[in-house]
């Protein structure tokens, strides 16, 4: 064979082999994927495989994607491709039980009519810049025409796409979820505000996520019985429960063995206008002691992982660490408890309390989330007065040990009412007409030998959108944590690991550490110089006023020298503060420059050097073979 034809022939055969290999792989291995991402976001997880395998009847997934509008929006186009690939994988894993049908709901088409009738939400052209509404959603139907609608699959929420689809499959194929009875005084959490209508109107994003997990009933402040199908009780900063209400909760937990308690010694969201009970006090009566815990009255501060707030320093507004609001990073979460082990972005807390185990309790405490060792305490009253970061830094006294802000309690239970049930209320008036006489309660239970599970969080502000969300972007897994707890304790579907499956934030830890340390130095210096600056400012103002009031409008030589000295002192103090700030910027700039040099120059040079050395070594081997 001629040498001139050899290379083209080899390349052609390699191309044909490559095409044939891809065709064969597509036909024989449709569900096989290679996921090279660090977080394995494109790998189908075991909960999804279990859900698909458990399908008892065929499911049809109608995928609606407006191609015309999506073609003008790169994010939507890429996300639609991701949805299409994931649905194909679901179908391949289902052995024919899942059928995918894709529709293009162009304007005024039958597909658009079907999408609107199913409840899909189109994004208006003025919001996307496209010529037509953008539809990107799905409708799942089983053999008896039950359906679950995903109105819009947001491209910004791609990391939770698998959870959304798997949860829809689980809801479609699984049994009806049990009711979650919510006892809360917080209108910013559920807009129902405890009207007892049985209709939950979630306001906070975490409450919306919770409602998607199960049927939620918000109880009124005068409730005298629990819904008959209650499967889990969620108590979030309640009003002062009556003895009868406490007994109802006590008996339900003794029988059911599950509860979630959110109790805050200083609910800053409620104090700032959100509404609700601000301090928990003794509103739960004897229940916490019977369950093995108490909430300390002081507020916890964490100087090791503080969140930043806007504060004025030396006339400039800048982000400053505020230990009253802090993050518990993944390293501070339990790595053995599935309730928090999969939370990759950590949890944010605000003016939280400490959970203290009660000595001699039958239930054992396991830590879910704890502060760093650089923690301190502050009275709830002072914390609710919104002290500035400078004021917090001035009185900083770290305890040198972590403080527990979220915990689980497991073990046998005793009733909080060893003397029996308190007198029941008597219905009258409109309540008697609406509901009839109060039915007799079941026989009381005094002990539970089977292990119960109660989750306690000494904070309610962690559910406030402003603490962990910026628009549609979540900086922490607060909502996923609550919904995962309810999912595992209430619904038991095992999807909590999927719920927390989010793209891991990869901050520049070195830069953040430099900035945090520098801001701390800045606050300390500001506090140290604050008295001098204030005294000098007052003295300058007094001398200037004296000079202006003098008959000739001038100061005496001594006063003029004093004024000049105080002005010089002000300039020196402010200059020292500016020098620290400039030092922050200089340190940050040096690290950024180093990062750019390493990634843009040194790494490519290293690759080129490696290739050059490999090529040189190969040529030397060829030369040695020629010599021998």
Structure in words:
This protein is an alpha/beta fold and 628 residues long. It folds into four domains: 1-30; 31-165, Glutaredoxin; 175-419 and 445-506; 510-627, Methane Monooxygenase Hydroxylase, Chain G, domain 1 (Up-down Bundle), CATH 1.20.58. 43% of the residues lie in helices and 19% in strands. It is built from 19 helices and 20 strands. Strands 6-5-7-8-18-17-15 form a seven-stranded mixed β-sheet, with helices on both faces. A four-stranded mixed β-sheet has the order 2-1-3-4, sandwiched between helices. The longest helix has 71 residues, at 557-627. It is globular, with a radius of gyration of 32 Å. The chain starts with a helix and ends with a helix. Residues 193-199 have low confidence and may be disordered.
Low-confidence stretches: 193-199
Q: Count of helical segments?
A: 19
Radius of gyration: 32 Å
Question: What's the main sheet like?
Answer: 7 strands, mixed
What number of structural domains do the residues give?
4
Indicate the structural class: alpha/beta
Helix content: 40-55%
Termini separation: 29 Å
Shape: globular
Instruction: Please provide the count of β strands.
Output: 20
Biggest sheet strand line-up: 6-5-7-8-18-17-15
What's the average pLDDT?
81
Task: Work out the strand percent.
Answer: 15-25%
């Amino acid at each position: 064979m001629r040498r001139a034809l050899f290379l083209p022939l080899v390349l052609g055969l390699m191309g044909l082999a490559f095409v044939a290999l891809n065709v064969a792989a597509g036909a024989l291995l449709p569900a096989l994927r290679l996921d090279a991402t660090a977080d394995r976001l494109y790998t189908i997880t075991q909960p999804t495989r279990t859900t698909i395998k458990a399908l008892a009847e065929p499911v049809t997934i109608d995928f609606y994607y407006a191609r015309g509008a999506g073609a003008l929006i790169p994010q939507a186009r890429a996300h639609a491709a991701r949805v299409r690939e994931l649905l194909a994988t679901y179908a391949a894993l289902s052995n024919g039980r899942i059928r995918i049908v894709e529709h293009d709901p162009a304007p005024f088409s039958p597909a658009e009519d079907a999408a609107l009738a199913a409840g899909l939400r189109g994004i208006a052209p003025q919001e996307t810049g496209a010529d037509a509404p953008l539809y990107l959603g799905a409708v799942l139907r089983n053999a008896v025409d039950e359906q679950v609608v995903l109105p819009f699959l947001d491209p910004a929420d791609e990391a939770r796409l698998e959870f959304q689809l798997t949860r829809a499959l689980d809801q479609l194929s699984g049994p009806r979820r049990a009711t979650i009875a919510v006892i809360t005084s917080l209108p910013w959490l559920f807009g129902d505000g405890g009207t007892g209508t049985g209709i939950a109107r979630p306001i906070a994003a975490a409450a919306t996520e919770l409602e998607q997990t199960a049927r939620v009933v918000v109880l009124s402040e005068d409730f005298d019985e629990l819904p008959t199908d209650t499967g889990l009780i969620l108590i979030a900063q309640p009003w002062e429960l009556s003895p009868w209400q406490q007994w109802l909760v006590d008996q339900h937990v003794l029988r059911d063995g599950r509860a979630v308690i959110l109790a805050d010694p200083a609910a800053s969201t409620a104090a700032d206008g959100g509404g609700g009970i601000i301090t928990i006090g003794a509103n739960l009566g004897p229940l916490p002691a019977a369950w093995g815990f108490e909430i300390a009255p002081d507020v916890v501060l964490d100087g090791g992982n503080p969140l930043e707030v806007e504060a004025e320093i030396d006339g400039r507004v800048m982000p400053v660490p505020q230990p009253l609001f802090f993050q518990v990073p993944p390293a501070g979460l339990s790595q053995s408890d599935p309730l928090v082990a999969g939370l990759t972005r950590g949890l944010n807390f605000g003016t939280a309390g400490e959970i203290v185990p009660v000595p001699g309790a039958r239930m054992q405490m396991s830590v879910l989330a704890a502060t760093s060792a650089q923690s301190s305490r502050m009275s709830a009253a002072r914390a609710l007065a919104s002290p500035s970061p400078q004021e917090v830094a001035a009185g900083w006294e770290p305890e040198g040990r972590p403080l527990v802000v979220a915990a689980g309690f497991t073990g046998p239970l005793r009733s909080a009412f060893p003397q029996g049930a308190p007198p029941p209320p008597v219905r009258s008036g409109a309540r008697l007409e609406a509901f009839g006489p109060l039915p007799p309660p079941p026989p009381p239970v005094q002990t539970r030998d089977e292990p119960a599970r109660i989750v306690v969080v000494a904070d309610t502000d962690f559910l406030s959108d402003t603490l962990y969300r910026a628009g549609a972007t979540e900086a922490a897994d607060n909502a996923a944590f609550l919904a995962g707890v309810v999912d595992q304790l209430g619904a038991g579907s095992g999807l909590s690991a999927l719920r927390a499956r989010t793209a891991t934030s990869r901050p520049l830890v070195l830069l953040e550490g430099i900035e945090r340390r520098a801001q701390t130095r800045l606050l300390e210096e500001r506090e140290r110089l604050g008295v001098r600056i204030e005294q000098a400012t007052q003295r300058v103002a007094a001398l200037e006023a004296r000079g202006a009031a003098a008959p000739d409008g001038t100061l005496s030589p001594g006063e003029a020298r004093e004024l000049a000295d105080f002005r010089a002192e002000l300039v020196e103090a402010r200059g020292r503060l500016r020098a620290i700030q400039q030092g922050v910027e200089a340190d940050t700039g040096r690290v950024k420059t180093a990062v750019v040099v390493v990634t843009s120059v040194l790494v490519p040079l290293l690759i080129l050097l490696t290739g050059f050395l490999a090529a040189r070594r190969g040529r030397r081997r060829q030369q040695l073979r020629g010599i021998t």
